[in-house]
Design brief:
Blueprint: H1 18-25, H2 28-32, E1 36-38, H3 41-63, E2 68-69, E3 73-74, E4 78-81, E5 86-88, E6 94-96, E7 99-102, E8 105-107, E9 117-118, H4 122-140, H5 151-163, H6 173-202, H7 204-216, E10 225-227
Antiparallel strand pairs: 1-10, 2-9, 3-4, 4-5, 6-7, 7-8
Helix pairs in contact: 3-5, 3-6, 4-5, 4-6, 5-6, 6-7
Length: about 240
């Protein structure tokens, strides 16, 4: 009996499909390049959570020492201008209508910052505490009224910064309440880290897009596509999942 070759041309209506033939031929890597994974809303939200966790990890050592990196952004507080030791609405060097936002003022020319990190002034720390108190109020609302995002991680960053500057301001009720919840926030962040790790492991296309995002500096957005990630689906549900408050 004549043996059939694995490389016999496949008919469009035949039993074997192209992906099956690739597996039989041991050519999985070449097939992998042909799979296109389209980012869903869930992918984009997961990528944002992953970015926030990495940001938290990177800044933690400075925050617990009471310092903030130049242009670091804390939600509800603003962008930190290290030379001015304060937070503002726009990042340092933000350009608009030919002018540049520098240390809280609009300038005609852009001036490089002199400081890479510094300790906020007592007035700036009051802004942080007010934001921390507001974050806790949002977290205390019924789940249906909470805003979604990285709330517990943001609160943890603010608490670390305030705790690292205890001698520079008098902590109010917001800070005192936060001191009893910091451990819970940390556990929540670690739970999110586990969710992201498992998601990336189960979705090679997502993991590939995150790698591409890091290389390009562009955030992951729904609708983007990437080749690779054999086994990932191009038609997964776009249902959203919630992280934090």
């Amino acid at each position: 009996m004549k043996k059939r070759s694995f490389f016999t041309p496949l008919r469009p209506g035949g039993i074997l499909r192209w992906s099956t033939a690739c597996i039989l031929a041991g050519s999985l890597s070449s097939c992998d390049r042909g799979v296109r994974h389209v980012m869903t809303d869930q992918d984009a939200e997961m990528a944002e959570t992953q970015t926030q966790i990495e940001k938290l990890d990177t800044e933690k050592s400075k925050l617990i020492q009471g310092e903030v990196s130049h242009n670091f952004h804390i939600p509800r507080v603003g962008y930190y201008h290290a030379d001015q030791q304060d937070f503002f609405e726009h990042p340092y060097g933000f350009s608009q209508d030919g002018r540049y936002f520098i240390n809280g003022e609009w300038k005609d020319e852009s001036v490089p910052a002199m400081t890479t990190a510094s300790r906020p002034t007592p007035e700036a720390l009051k802004k942080v505490e007010a934001a921390l108190e507001e974050e806790q109020k949002v977290a205390a609302k019924p789940s249906g009224q909470q805003s979604h995002g990285f709330g517990m991680g943001n609160a943890l960053m603010m608490y670390w910064l305030l705790a690292g500057n205890r001698g520079m301001f008098s902590g109010g009720s917001g800070f005192q309440q936060a001191s009893t919840q910091a451990g819970s926030w940390q556990r929540g962040v670690e739970n999110q880290r586990g969710v992201v790790t498992r998601y990336a492991s189960a979705n090679p296309g997502y993991a590939r897009m995150v790698e591409q995002s890091r290389a390009s500096g562009a955030p992951v957005k729904a609708g983007q596509s990437v080749r690779g990630g054999f086994g990932s689906s191009t038609s997964r549900s776009s249902g959203r999942s919630s992280f934090g408050s």
